[in-house]
Specification:
4-stranded antiparallel sheet; 1 helix
Length: about 90
């Protein structure tokens, strides 16, 4: 199993959550970041909105990987990213 699901506090846009995981005695720190992307430049055309979202995700900091795309709320789409930091021990 590569992923587990845990409850985290509610996040506002552009916040990070740090989670420390221990596997076989080795600690690993995981960072999660929630971003809210404005995809309104796509107008009402759904395919243009999706293309805009793809561009925003592909242009995002390459040190973060896409985890989840949330349900759009008006012109904003919540997107969760994860960054793994090397083991501490």
């Amino acid at each position: 199993m590569k992923q587990i699901c845990i409850q985290v506090p509610s996040l506002q846009s552009n916040q990070t959550v740090d989670v420390e995981v221990t596997v076989n005695g080795k600690k690993r720190l995981m960072n999660y970041r929630l971003e809210s992307f404005d995809w309104s430049q796509g107008g009402y055309d759904t395919s243009l909105k999706i293309q805009r979202l793809r561009e925003l995700i592909h242009g995002y900091d390459p040190g973060w990987e896409l985890v989840q795309i949330g349900v759009p709320d008006g012109n904003l789409v919540p997107v969760m990213f994860r960054r793994s930091i090397l083991p501490e021990s």
